[in-house]
Design a protein that fits this description.
Largest sheet: 5 strands, mixed
Order of helices and strands: EEEEEEEEEEHHEEEEHHHHH
Number of strands: 14
Distance between the termini: 51 Å
Strand order of the largest sheet: 2-9-8-4-5
Shape: elongated
Length: about 350
């Protein structure tokens, strides 16, 4: 058997190549057609490029080595299969066509802290730190956590999609930080609003459940009794801000379930969450699940270190959970209308 080696980055003359200029991977649009572009080199073989989607096949227009086509989309999932050079080379791109979303303004958010939630925050400090804080120090601790949650929450949403306000109202989504606990529930959102048709909403973050869970400190490694007050302030702020962002996400319509359900084109599962099985099915074509690395991942798959933004431990910089790229695109739709 003879092996032929080519210089790094080089291909033998005549090797077909197919490049995709757009759309980006796992693209979200509300339009019924999408422009698909790229480059092709077939090395002397016919340079035709075709794109199939559902039962439709479209021949691309060629201009030298560039190609383009307008492809019709069905509502929901669309797998674009792009083939070239007499089917010698092919690539797939996953595109989702969303229902029409009414263009809006940034969603106003108000965090309402109850006295019971403040007490739960203080109790976490009492139970999870070796150092003992005075009554005044505990008040300061709770105040810094409240400030931290607001600052962190503001950074979890794409720019221009939310606005933090200091009171509730008819166009405000209110997040009640309460002392409720039990059953491993960290929060809830009674109304799932696909498309955020009503800008007035309500979510709850059960601060008492965080206090109850954090009593079992080994579950929350790398948190330790020997941590500094500053570490614990940041830990709790990150956990509560992530919980608030998750519940707000539900209130704004993330993430719809079965295709026949409301907002089913989102392909969520596990009670309106990012879907592990969907990720497994489409692999590298999508990027929607990370075991807690994404804010809308299910609670039962979210590891505790992700909740405090330290999945790799204290020796590393914090890496907070984020909305998946797909969920960020949906938030952008809500704030600014259709994505081209």
């Amino acid at each position: 058997m003879t092996c032929v080696w080519w210089p790094l980055g080089a291909l033998p003359q005549g090797t077909p190549t197919l490049g995709i200029g757009g759309p980006a991977a796992d693209f979200l649009t509300t339009f019924s057609t999408i422009s698909v572009t790229g480059q092709v080199s077939c090395g002397g073989v016919g340079s035709e490029v075709s794109i199939s989607c559902s039962a439709v096949s479209v021949a691309a227009a060629l201009a030298g080595e560039s190609w383009s086509a307008s492809v019709p989309l069905t509502l929901g999932a669309n797998m674009l299969h792009i083939s070239a050079c007499q089917n010698a080379i092919a690539k797939d791109v996953f595109v989702t066509r969303a229902e029409q979303v009414v263009a809006g303004s940034p969603q106003k958010l108000f965090l309402l802290w109850t006295p019971e939630a403040n007490q739960a925050v203080k109790q976490i400090a009492r139970e999870t730190l070796t150092i003992k804080l005075s009554k005044k120090e505990l008040e300061t601790f709770a105040e810094r956590v409240r400030d931290g949650v607001l600052a962190i929450l503001a950074g979890r949403f794409p720019i221009g999609t939310i606005e933090l306000v200091d009171s509730s109202g008819p166009d405000v989504h209110t997040v009640r930080m309460i002392g409720a606990k039990g059953g491993g529930v960290f929060g809830q959102t009674p109304v799932y609003d696909c498309g955020n048709l009503s800008h007035e909403g309500l979510s709850e973050v059960w601060v008492g459940s965080y206090e109850e869970s954090m009593r079992n400190l080994p579950l929350w490694t790398p948190m330790l009794m020997s941590d500094s007050v500053g570490d614990r302030t940041e830990d709790i702020s990150q956990a509560l801000a992530r919980g608030a962002a998750h519940e707000i996400g539900h209130g704004l319509g993330m993430v719809g379930g079965a295709p026949s359900a409301t907002c089913g084109w989102m392909n969520g599962c596990d009670d309106l969450h990012d879907c592990e099985s969907f990720q497994a099915t489409y692999g590298s074509l999508v990027n929607r699940f990370e075991k807690g690395g994404y804010i809308m991942d299910p609670g039962d798959t979210t590891l505790r270190p992700w909740r405090i933004a330290l999945p790799l431990g204290r020796a590393h910089s914090r890496r907070p959970s984020a909305f998946s790229p797909f969920d960020q695109a949906y938030l952008a739709l809500l704030a600014g209308g259709a994505v081209p």
